[in-house]
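Data card: per-record layout.
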Amino acid sequence: MSVRKLGCNMSESMNEGHIHSIAFPFIFVMLYGTGFVGAKYGLPYAEPVTFLVWRFAIAACVVAGIGLFFKANWPKSWREAFHISVAGMLTVGTFSLGVFVAIDMGLSPALSALIIALQPVLVAVVARRMLGESLKLFQWLGLVFGLIGIVFVVSQKLDFTSVHMTGLGMAVIGLLGLSFGNLYQKRFCADMNIFSGGAIQSFASCVMCLPFAFAFETMQVEWSVQFIGALGYMSIGVSVGALSLLYVMIRRGEVSRVASIFYFVPVSAALVSSFLFEEKIDLPVAIGISITALGVMLVNRQSKK
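The structure for this 305-residue chain is written out next.
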């Protein structure tokens, strides 16, 4: 191979990597952020855990079908399948269970988003010990900026008058599930196939939620057009699309940097809500979005050698 051709291939590879580094986080944030809006449409027609059982069951079938079509590699041992299942039950099952139940119990979506926004900081702290990752001073500053930005974004919607301690606790459980799930995914399942692994994780999350639905809910569903649309979007758009992108990003980068992208999820939810529900984007929200963007930029900035 000539030096010129090698240089062209390297340039194309770098350009492709640059495009992925921009496109993947953007698409993930849009899909994951609008998932909160999808939940708002679907929860009036089904109890929260019942909604999740249907969502995970559909997602598992869809991703398994895609995996079989593309002849994806499946785990070679029960140990590997176990690690994939645990990562899924934390990142997908526990997180979704905590957030959905918290909102259903009266916790405002804004306060729930603020609690989940602690995830990048928690991941950065734990990743230092669990994965040996470390952040520079300017990256820690970026995490602080990101959190401040989220406070600005959700400040106008915070409602402490109807806060139930149980709902608050469920949101914290969701935070812990998402944070430790990302770390577990990076350490034990970084090389998993996104199709076969995604199917296993969705199935494991469904199995995890099913006993809670049987024990605490009637499992009745009102099959309205709105519910079917919300369920379809949460199953395909979020559980398949967004989570597949998350696994790819965790595999390619440091988990602390990937976690910082979650700062943009409440921002995305606020922007979509303003479009669908005609909620005004005021000055504090605009300031918060700008500060959040600065924070994520600092966290993902490459230090000079």
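Known properties of this structure: Residues 28-299 form one domain. The CA atoms of residues 168 and 227 lie 26 Å apart.

See the next section for split statistics.
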